[in-house]
Design goal:
Residues 33-154 form the Gcp-like domain. InterPro entries: ATPase_NBD, Gcp-like_dom, T6A_TsaB. This protein has a five-stranded mixed beta sheet, with helices on both faces. It has a five-stranded mixed beta sheet with strand order 8-7-6-9-10. It has 237 residues and is an alpha/beta fold. The protein folds into two domains: 3-95 and 188-227, 2-Layer Sandwich (Nucleotidyltransferase, domain 5), CATH 3.30.420.40; 96-185, ATPase, nucleotide binding domain (Nucleotidyltransferase, domain 5, 2-Layer Sandwich), CATH 3.30.420. The radius of gyration is 18 Å and the shape is globular. The longest helix has 18 residues, at 69-86. Helix 2 links the parallel strand 4 and strand 5 (89-93). Helix content is 36%, strand content 29%. The chain has helices spanning 35-50, 69-86, 95-100, 144-154, 163-167, 169-175, 190-202, 221-229; strands at residues 3-7, 12-19, 22-30, 59-63, 89-93, 109-117, 120-129, 132-143, 158-161, 179-180.
Length: 237
């Protein structure tokens, strides 16, 4: 069973192909949000490297967010078009879950933190259990102060991972004693996407392409700007 993993929810574009043996080929690049221009060549590259045709793909795994609105839309649109053309399903995974995956072998609480811009972060907490990585707090959007309050309420040894953790490292360190994951783990990886999706693919636990939805957690900026312009005096209530 071959899985194509598409990761475009953050600054990085990451694409991988894998199966029961692990990741067969992977492409990653950070190019200033040029997701639309980069994704198709990236998919072609990993197919060539793995000597695989798109028609051989069994299922597509895609990061549904939270993250960059435009990036998420690029990845989701590509995944839907390919899945519908190939007649296969999609396995949706959260960028916060993907961030936690590489640091799962710890007894500490894991805090996945993604930079949401505008002074906010997307975050969720995880624990490694006998059954595997378990999310112990649902994804949220909030300020760094709100993140620190959530960490303080749990009062546990914590490792923070993600570009949001790195961007606000000083503020987090001043507010709560935590360990930080390596900077190389700041963005979700398509390798983790393929690895996490494989068990679900074996169970045929996938979703119809038409049913896939992005996990925004916050109203897209374009909608916020439109609402602002059309509210208040002279605008819609």
């Amino acid at each position: 069973m071959l899985i194509l993993g598409i990761e475009t929810a953050t600054e990085r574009v990451s694409v991988a192909i894998g199966n029961h043996e692990g990741v067969l080929a992977m492409f990653e690049v950070t190019r200033g949000r040029r997701h639309a221009e980069t994704l198709t060549p990236a998919i072609e590259f990993v197919c060539q490297q793995a000597d695989i045709k798109l028609a051989e793909i069994s299922v597509i795994a895609v990061d549904v967010g939270p993250g960059l609105f435009t990036g998420m839309r690029v990845g989701l649109a590509a995944a839907k078009v390919m899945a519908q053309a190939l007649g296969i399903g999609i396995i949706p995974l959260s960028s916060l879950d993907l961030l936690a995956h590489p640091v799962r072998h710890t007894e500490k609480l894991i805090a996945s933190v993604i930079d949401a811009r505008k002074g906010e972060v997307f975050y969720a907490f995880y624990r490694q259990t006998a059954a595997g990585l378990s999310r112990v707090m649902e994804p949220k959007t909030g300020t760094i102060d709100e993140l620190l309050i959530a960490l303080s309420e749990r009062s546990q040894d914590t490792v923070c991972v993600g570009d949001g953790a790195l961007r606000y490292r000083d503020e987090i360190t001043l507010g709560y004693p935590v360990e930080f994951a390596e900077p190389s783990l700041a963005f979700p990886s398509s390798a983790a996407l393929v690895q996490m999706a494989y068990a679900r693919a074996v169970r045929e636990d996938w979703v119809d392409p038409a049913a896939i939805q992005a996990m925004y957690l916050r109203q897209p900026d374009a909608e916020i700007n439109w609402s602002t312009r059309h509210s208040g005096p002279g605008g819609a209530a």
